[in-house]
Every structure is written in C-alpha cells, then in structure tokens.
Amino acid sequence: MPSRLRSALSAVLLTLSCLLLPFGALALWAAYGLTDTGRYVTTMAPLATDPDVRDAVADAVGDSLLREAGRGLDTGPLRGSVRPFVHDAVRSFTQTQAFRLAWDAGNRVTHDAVLRALREDRDEAAAGPVTVDFAPVTAQVKQQLSDEHIPLAARIPVQHTAVAVLPADELTSLRKGFHVLEVAGFWLPLAAVVFAAAGIALAVRRRRAIAATALGTALAGALLGLAVAVGRSLTLAGLPADVPHPAAGAVYDALTGTLRTVSWLLLALGLTVALTTWLTRNLRPARLVRRLRGPKEPAPAPAQEPTRVQA
Q1: How far apart are CA 97 and CA 144, in angstroms?
Q2: Which end of the chain, N or C, is less packed with Cβ atoms under 10 Å?
Q3: pLDDT digits (tens, 9 = 90+) for 140-173
Q4: How far are the Cα atoms of 40, 57, 266, 307 from residue 45, in angstroms, in the given order?
C-alpha cells in the first residue's frame, strides 16, 4: 500500500476512534452503570445526609402529611400554624437512621420497578404507568422505629398504595431508547478501541500516531467533562419551578460522578501517553549527543586542479 494512502487511512481511523470515545463512555455509563441496582443504591445513599435533599424531602413529605391529615387543616389559619411544626418533625426524622434505611429501600424498590418495565416487552395498548408500592419500605421504617423504642411507632399504618413513577405515554419511547443504549454501550467503546489499534498499525510513523491518539483521547476526556457540565445546566434549567434546584443538582452530581471520573482519567491518560512518547523520542542518547554537538559543519570542497590549455 502506498505511504500516502496508509497515512490517510490511519488519520481517518484515529479520528473516528477519538470521536467515538466520549459517546462510547456515555453510552456505557447509561446502559450498564445505571442499570445495576446495588451500584445505584450505593451511589444514592450519601444523598440521605445532604442538607438540600433532606430539606426537599421534608417539604414534600410535610405537605403530603398536611393534605392527608384532614380537610379541615387545608382552610383557615390553622394550616399555617401547624405547618412549621409538621415540617420540623419531618426534618428531624430525616436525620435518623430510620430515614436512611427508608431512603435506601425506596431507591431500591423504585430502581427495580423502572428497570423491570424498561426490559419487559409488553403490548403498547396494555402497558400502563409504572407504579411502586412503598408498603415494604413503610414496614421497614416501622420496624426500625419500634426497635429504637419510639413512642407510637407500632401504630404507624402500613398501607399498600401504588405510586406512579413513569407515565404510560413515555414508557414505549423510553424502552426503545434503553435498548439502543444497551447496544451502543457495547459496540461504541469496542469500535473506538478497534479503530485506534487499526490506525496505529497502518500508520507509517507509528510513534506520531500513538501521540496523536493520546492527544485525541485527552481531548475526548475534556469534551466528556464539558458535556456533563452543560448537561447539568440544561437539566436544572428545564425543571419545573416547584422542584428544588439544589436538591436536583445534588442528585445529578451523584449520578454523574462516574462520568466525571472517567473524563479526568481519559484526560490524564492521554496527556501522560503523549508526554511519554515525546520524551522517549527526543531524549534518546544518540539524539541528545547530536543536539549537544550542534549542527555539523559542511566539509570543505576539494581543491580543483587548474585546467591546462593546450596550444
């Protein structure tokens, strides 16, 4: 194969590899990083101690308790006087071990239900909204409070109530997108690695190809980190006004923590390989000796003998 054709094909393959790398990392994270229930619960567990998340939970649960406590509290000044006490009580509960247990159990139940709905192939006409029954979570909290000898804990009612977590009209599109992510999460990273290996193998100057691939990897990591930051801004900007933005930002940061780590790893790995390649090329002993000696002086031209002219 001619050298120019090899160089052109190598450049195309290396460019494709660097372009596919951030998309492959994103698809791999979405398809496999978020689908493991144990990993998801572990990722969300620290949010139970986040002040913004606890305030959001206290406000939501407090308002729900006031609505369900009695219709008489919804009118008149009584609601305004009772509301601070209810919210303070719920906020105090968010600092207990029972709340952390309920938080982990609720996340586990919700994740299992959503994942099961995305992986099932049900008829679109018969598909309804994805619902979650939080009665087992309430039972665990009740048992935890009873073990801690909290007064009236045994009288907490455990009611089976179906809470919708995914609407039926969005389930079909979400299921199709999930299947696409599962395929892309496997093939995109594999294609990026294959294209990089093929591009380096075809390169005429492989050292330069390795350095170019490393710099492209670093650029891909930087673009991935930028995409995570831009996605955070767009996500928070698209939320309704009644959704607490600090709590939503904390949830987004927890879910995308792995992506940020991957972006920094790609950036560091790419820069390290590129720097190593440059150092091994420019700090070889023979090259250093030539640089220290300086450019070679041109050898003097041999003296030409005078031409004899014959009479």
Answers
A1: 8
A2: C
A3: 666 666 666 655 556 556 566 666 667 777 777 8
A4: 9, 14, 27, 98
